[in-house]
Amino acid sequence: MALQAAALVPSSFSFAKEGKSGKDSGLFGVSLADQLKSDFSYSSLKSKKPFSLIQREIGFRNGEIRAETIAATPSVTRAAPAGKKTLRQGTVVITGASSGLGLATAKALAETGKWHVIMACRDFLKAERAAKSAGMAKENYSIMHLDLASLDSVRQFVDNFKRSGRPLDVLVCNAAVYFPTAKEPTYTAEGFELSVGTNHLGHFLLSRLLLDELNKSDYPSKRLIIVGSITGNTNTLAGNVPPKANLGDMRGLAGGLNGLNTSSMIDGGDFDGAKAYKDSKVCNMLTMQEFHRRYHEDTGITFASLYPGCIATTGLFREHIPLFRTLFPPFQKYITKGYVSEDEAGKRLAQVVSDPSLTKSGVYWSWNKDSASFENQLSEEASNPGKARKVWELSEKLVGLA
Ligand code: NDP
Ligand code: PMR
Fold first, then answer.
1. What pLDDT sits at residue 400?
2. What is the chain's Cα-based Rg?
3. Residue 41 above 70 pLDDT?
4. Using a 6 Å CB cutoff, which residues line ligand 1?
5. Residue 373 bridge partners (DSSP)
6. What residues contact residue 284 under an 8 Å CB cut-off, 6+ apart?
7. What's the CA-to-centroid distance between 284 and ligand 1, angstroms?
8. ipTM value greater than 0.95
9. How far is the CA of 242 from the centre of ligand 1 (A)?
10. Cα(166)–Cα(154) distance, integer angstroms
């Protein structure tokens, strides 16, 4: 156990630092009793290549993918029995569907036969292999190239999608990167720190550009889902493991996160990969709420976020030290009991995509011990409307929408 704790405690983590020694304060000053109650409730491009080279590669891959997409995606409308209206097959775009949560969700939706899944992935071959090994039937998915670490690629994806002639019924912003051990920041094609650039800014542009497509859909329940996480929420035990998410006054975001004339971190501080990831998740959850405030009433689109549980085995931890990767799954399974399998997490996200009872907009979903969904509380920062508006306004400048 001592070994486990050593590998799981981040270098900046110290019980003394949190300074709470009262009997009831529990870890990090959060009452353990309270936490247990709520925790069940809460229960690469590291681009060193020149931009022009990346563009050429993307162009080439797009050509390849378009051909494949057209070949693999006959427009499917399910035949309705005479006199009975049957819901047509829905189309859902899932970013980062080549592994982990995205793949498990794609699989869960594809096997119902009710969904055509567009796997929006940066690595076409990896996505194709993943879909095949997950046993997804060819007619229920297609793959389109999307590299969220390049705004040109995001725009190209949106153009390709529009040209495909498919409706857009649900968009799932799922892809993410996490660089917990990086000493120095790496950057997207446009020069944004890579985790916030990919997880937040790439998705921000994608969802803004696809909003019209969603709005045009005649599907009975149109949804935009942005995957969040417990670790961005400082009202939880997990969210109190240092470094904690904190957007501060967003001076780094305002400056473009480029590490040159401004910090690579949203709050303007020194680079910290784990914090950058958690900050990006706060931006994801704030963006979902800002979408809800701006567009739900007029469009009827459901905007939602979620914490699917701790899927401790996914590729998200690929950059972590090997000892962490070995110990994290048993730690989550047996100690925190926050662990969830990829399959189970995929079913949860699939519910947020298609369950008729999860149509409420502006909600951050979580699942309890019995795997029942409930509306969870976000932290003060992750639910602050002023911060949401500021993230929105600064982000739209950075991605060229304002
Ligand atoms: P994975 O690493 O398994 O999946 C991440 C996916 O994102 C991969 O398909 C990856 O592609 C893709 N991706 C990364 N960078 C880009 C990019 N530039 N452009 C396009 N796609 C990209 O991790 P998870 O499945 O765990 O993560 C999925 C989501 O779940 C994330 O939003 C994460 O924050 C969230 N989450 C995860 C938790 C967990 O415990 N694992 C807990 C809470 C939330 P490739 O295969 O090519 O690398
Ligand atoms: Mg956590 C109920 C307690 C709980 C839960 C649900 C998580 C989820 N974590 C919990 C507790 C703890 N973690 C405790 C007490 C520690 C200190 C020993 C701890 C440590 C820890 C580390 C070092 N945890 C981590 C890391 C990571 O590198 C992961 C991370 O922050 O990624 C950003 C992580 C996570 N813990 C979680 C979840 C879901 C993650 C990762 C994924 C994410 O938020 O997307």
1. 98
2. 21
3. no
4. 45, 95-96, 98-102, 121-123, 126, 146-149, 174-177, 198, 227, 229, 307-308, 310-312, 314-316
5. 367
6. 173, 199, 200, 203, 226, 227, 228, 232, 305
7. 13
8. yes
9. 21
10. 17
